[in-house]
Amino acid sequence: MIILWTDALIFILNAIMLGLAFYMHGKEYIKRPMQQIYRSKIGMVSLVVLVFFVLIGLMDSVHFKATGNKTNEIISLLDYWATPLREHGEKTYSAPFATTLYSKEMMTLADGTTQWGYPRLEFGGSHLDEPETQRIPDILQKGLYGFAQGAGLVAFFMVLLWAMLARQHKQFMHSSTVKVVWVVVFVIVSLSYALIYLSAYYHVLGTDKVGEDVFYQAVKGIRTGLVIGTLTTLIMLPMAIIFGILAGFFRGWIDDVIQYIYTTLNSIPGVLLIAASILMVQVYMANHEEAFTSVVVRADMRLLFLCLILGVTSWTGLCRLLRAETLKLREMEYVQAAQALGVKQGTILLRHILPNVMHIVLISVVLDFSSLVLAEAVLSYINIGVDPTTYSWGNMINGARLEMAREPIVWWSLSAAFVFMFALVLAANLFADVVQAAFDPRRAGNE
Amino acid sequence: MTQYIIRRFLYAFPLLMGVNILTFVLFFIVNSPDDMARMQLGQKHVTEQAVENWKQQRGYDLPLLWNAKVQGDEKITKTIFYQKSVGLFLFRFGISDSGRNIGADIQERMWPSLAVALPSLIVGLLVNISFALMMVLFRNSYLEHAGIVLCVILMSVSSLFYIIGGQFFIAKLLRLVPISGYDDGMAAVKFLILPVLIGVFSGIGSGVRWYRTLFLEEVEKDYVRTARAKGLTETQTLFRHVLRNAMIPILTGVVVVLPLLFMGSLIMESFFSIPGLGSYTIDAINSQDFAIVRAMVFLGSVLYVIGLLLTDISYTIVDPRVRLS
Amino acid sequence: MNNPILAVERLSVAFNHQQKVVDDISFAIYPGESFALVGESGSGKSITALSVLRLLPNNARLNAGAISLQGDNLLNRSEFELCKIRGRRIGLIFQDPMSSLNPVMTIGSQIEEVINIHFDLPKKVIKQRVLELLQQVEIPDPKQRIKDYPHQLSGGQRQRVMIAIALAAKPDLLIADEPTTSLDVTIQAQILALLKNIQQQTGMALWLISHDLALVSTMADRVAVMQQGKIVETGVTADFFSNPKHPYTRKLLNALPLMSSCLTHSTEEKPPLLQVNDFKVYYPIHKGIFKRIVDHVRAVDGVSFDIQQGKTLALVGESGCGKTTLGKSLLNLIPASGGQVKINGIELSSLTGEQLRQQRANIQIVFQDPFSSMNPRMLVGDIIAEGIRALHPSINSAERKARVRQLLQQVDLPENSAQRYPHEFSGGQRQRICIARALAVEPKLIVCDEPTSALDVSVQAQIIQVLKSLQQEKGVSYLFITHDLAVVAEIADDVAVMYQGKIVEQGSVAQVLTQPQHAYTRKLLDAVPVLKTEK
Asked: Which tens digits make up the pLDDT trace of C45-59?
């Protein structure tokens, strides 16, 4: 197993999340907002969608060297399972579920004559003898079959869980939120099962310019989006929290210095700072080629740098919020009481200030997530995003937008990126809304 | 007031100095001018001589911070840091790596940028505020809930899709306006309609939501209750009292970005081939022209600092409670 | 009696389908009279006023037989028709004049607005009317003030503007919802006098909503007492106070602190515990381009006093006089600018860092607001134990727990409170927890910074009782900071009166309250509303 930098950070992030969940478990002040989230249908449904994305992302984060393969490339667990998709490349564009290429070319028929027409795809629908008549029934049949398999799987687990939990958690199992969640799980799993089943026979979302499967690209893009959305936060949080709280609590020259730092960083237009930094990283990598031998390692490094730079440019907003909140909190009477009781400053910070600003941190993390995923696409479009070899929705859009001018237009790459990105961002936005409503003290109790 | 403005001007200097040092570290310390030269001239087969020539043409052949070879003040002045910084502070941006005069380019290109950005801002503001007011007026009704859901959906679509979709449907299928391009004078209008429209549309989701929270915050305040107790109707309360108070954060939020409008929008301009500063910057990034990127970073910071100052001043104008000292 | 101007029948209000905040109440107000609705916080009295004009928040459910204004049932009126009644027929004054006025409109235009909505008059006439109104509410120099914004006025002046707004359309009924609660006692007296005066001039009815029984007894013709959404007793004022019928009313009246109780304190001399000499707290004023310090705000300006062991010194003054600054500064929560503080002979002002931290066990503080004085994220047990942990690290956790149990018992709280969070307690209970927290490190002096101001009278009496019995038990001294002279009489042995950063008068409580020397003290004493009972 090979652990790339971003993998390591993702695992650390997961460990932190689990640790936090364990620590928070049973704390009274966390229970109430949590229950509010549990009760919210929108919140739970979007959480299910997010968890689904995260699971795919995690599968894509376990890397190892492919064995028995001549190239010795680094692949992930997801790549391993999707080996047919990776290897079933076509020559060039083909539409979703197509059996022929997108463009006409000269082809040699079996009898040796040449003909100008649409050649059959090497893999997509190659099991069909007469694609014209067989294709649609075959797709429907295989799709149904896959869907039924997925549905059966979910149903099986549902019955199993129900049998185990029904006695103790009767109330829980019958709440309307749980029902909605089950329906969504059912739909997601069955649909993806059907898609996976179909993708063994067809390119369900077509292929791109070099004949690579778009479905595979879009799924691979999930990890990139998640990494940018979460690792950036992981990098920026310590800076924002430490600086924000220190500036607000100690004031004086510490405050002046921290304010100066973030005003300076803020005054540089974000995109330009990112551009400048990424340019420098490019130059650095170009001059130190020996350190980045593998393409995957190199792309991963650049992804990490991008997160780092995004983190550096985005901590100022949260820092300012935390500073303002800390300024308010330090005048709170319980902080003064602690001072009067001779509690040391460090302890006051950890025990009284930090827990009482965490809701702001949480809200800003979930709010930032979706904007970071969106930012990735824009940055990749300007060529200052992820490495061009990294699978990302930004790169997919960037590659596909020039094809809009073709006749008939190549719409599938763009649509695939759109659907995946929209699903992730919408789920994140909806979830963020619910979290904000639950944790924001000003809005708490309104609903 | 005057004293305050003078003090803010003095405070701008350390800020810009900080920006300058940061960019200097990024551009000259992380990577040496030699690295840049090789990057520009092609990685592999570059002679030492070619690198030296490239550096000399652009004034990168001096030491970074301290010139030990010369006498007196020149030890400091004959360095890359001094030469390049002083140039920036005097708004003499020098020559780009590809040999063009950056200052002249900026002067020429900022107007198209403004022509796109300013209408987008104004129309966007009007549209967002009207929708937000509508939602507040019909608060706690199905209309508002539908509005919120719509906003979240609009927010969840990448701006790239708005541009691509807009270009595809309005320009390509319906052929209402040209897909991209720019022209001088009034002829530019037909090229500007689509970018402005898309700019406004892509901002509606987050804009309306943001203004709605501002309005809702005001609606819950005590003075609104007083206004209703006076006998004002819901609409009168909203327009005479709530809007007026909410305009304070809205206006000051707008003022801070006003100077930055000159910088233009990177993706908009490059998608619509508008010869503004945004596409200028993108071109520079793509051709790795460090001189232009550095100049644009500095220009952006200057405009931001001006924006901050304008914000403070606009506070004193719109909010009678604020006195600067 | 003639027909009532406002008659409310069987009114109920509930929020979000929860318990009723106002529960089936009926009452009537007659022309020209002063009717007072009295109750403790949360009894639903303000909600009642708002529901008459249908100004409740959206999530409120209103249910009523009838709300009739001069025989006209308001429940049958549309929202649009109600707008013509609000402000025109019924005027409304709220508690906090600062937040109730629009901060970005001049006071002139805010008054003008009311006249504009309800009457069709030429501009000149309206202007004239605004000036008249400002004169009527006794704002000096109305021609200049008319262009002022609310923040440029003092608290009392703002409330006068609110009254002018309410009067602008010459309503038949004026609802005053806690009109003086956020004001100082001297200003309160002025505003009440003004209201009375205006009522006599115009002959309108006044509906006063208040928690302050003493104030009500001086203002109202008839009184109704509200408890948990229900009206428990109604009566004519004189009769009501001399012969209360309902047990709740009696409980309220008994809980009122009495000025006369100051005479019962012992005057025995004890050795001094805290000696404060020429104590100063200054805040610098910055000006100019480089923000040089040009002057100071003298928040506490050369104050000297002693507190004897096991006794209570009350520090009395109006808001902004520097009394809270002084209290916090004694604990070094706000840095002092000069002077000496000695406790038990140890000079505190020369100590810093670790030494100061160790001395903190001697002085503790109890704050005014029971809601912000405890960390909402901590268990009550941890809150109380915090000081023991910090100042006596040698005490192990079992002993600490035992100590917390003992402290909870001393302030009359159940033992299991330690395992609960602050938000599960009421205001009075929270204040007890705060007292227990202060007691935990066994201080010799506790600074009580308005500990009862945020509480209802009945709870206030309980807290004072707790403080008194702890003093007897442990011999702890109090510096009791308050604006309420009646509470002073209940608890203090000595009094110091503070005015603009200086102590203008000090002495034993009986001496200061019965024979005030300084003019300011006299003014304060005169302004205190005293319960009128014709026994």
From this structure: 889 999 999 888 877
Check CB contact under 8 Å for B158 and A384. Answer: no
Residues in contact with C377: Cβ distance below 8 Å, sequence separation at least 6, in sequence order: A27, A29, A355, A356
**Whole-number Å distance between alpha carbons of A309 and B224:** 45
Q: ∠C401-C406-C412 over CA atoms, to 5°?
A: 130
- All partners of chain A with 3 or more CB pairs under 8 angstroms: B, C
pLDDT, tens digit, 9 for 90 and up, residues B207-229: 999 999 999 989 988 999 999 99
> What residue numbers bound the domain in which B210 lies?
110-324
CATH no. for residue B189?
1.10.3720.10
Helices vs. strands in chain A: H and E counts, helices first: 17, 4
User: With contact defined as beta carbons under 8 Å apart, do C98 and C87 qualify?
Assistant: no
Give A258's contacts in chain B (Cβ within 8 Å): none
Token look-up 């490349």 returns A89
CA distance C33 to C236: 11
**Chain B residues touching C162 at Cβ < 8 A:** 226
pLDDT tens figures, C160-205: 999 999 999 999 999 999 998 888 888 888 999 999 999 999 889 9
Measured CA distances, A36 to A21, A24, A42, A44, B141 (Å):
17, 16, 11, 10, 22
Report chain C residues whose CB lies below 8 A from the CB of A343. Answer: 386-387, 389-390
**Burial B282-299, CB ≥16 within 10 A → b, else e:** bebbeeebbbbbbbbbbb
Low-confidence ranges of chain A (pLDDT < 50): 444-447
Q: Could you tell me if residue B97 is inside a domain?
A: no
- CATH fold of A221-446 reads MetI-like fold (1.10.3720)
Outline where chain B has alpha helix (H): 2-24, 33-41, 48-58, 74-77, 80-89, 102-137, 142-155, 159-166, 189-219, 222-230, 234-236, 243-257, 266-271, 277-286, 290-318
3-state secondary structure of B191: helix
Average predicted confidence (pLDDT) for chain A? 84
Number of domains in chain B: 2
Chains that touch B (3 or more CB pairs under 8 A): A, C
Alpha carbon C140 to its chain's center: 27
CA pair distance C139, C145, nearest whole angstrom: 8
**Cα Rg, chain A, nearest whole Å:** 26
* pTM of the model as a whole: 0.87
Chain mean position to CA B147: 29
Q: The complex's ipTM?
A: 0.85
Q: Are residues B129 and B36 in the same domain?
A: no
Measure in Å the smallest separation between the Cα of C87 and chain B Cα atoms. 4
Task: Indicate the length of chain A as a whole number.
Answer: 447
Could you tell me if B213 and B171 lie in one domain? yes
B117 and B79 belong to one structural domain? no
Taking the alpha carbons of C115, C121, C127, C130 in that order, is the dihedral positive or negative? negative
CA distances to A75, A422, C398, C420, C421 from A27, rounded to whole Å, are 41, 35, 22, 11, 10
Nearest-Cα distance to chain A for B130, in Å, is 23
Record: contact C391-A355, CB cut-off 8 A: no
CA distance B217 to C35: 34
Which residues 210-249 of chain B have a CB within 8 Å of chain C?
Answer: 221-223, 225-234, 236, 240-241, 244-245, 248
Helix H, strand E, coil C: the string for C324-338 is HHHHHHHCCCCCCCE
Q: pLDDT (tens digit, 9 = 90+) per residue, C366-411?
A: 998 888 889 888 889 999 999 998 888 888 889 999 999 999 998 9
Q: Is residue B102 in some structural domain?
A: no
A29: CB partners within 8 A, 6+ apart? C376, C377, C421
- Give Cα A313 to chain centroid, integer Å: 20
User: How far apart are the C-alpha atoms of A92 and A103, rounded to whole Å?
Assistant: 8
| Contact state of B225 with C100 under an 8 Å Cβ cutoff | yes
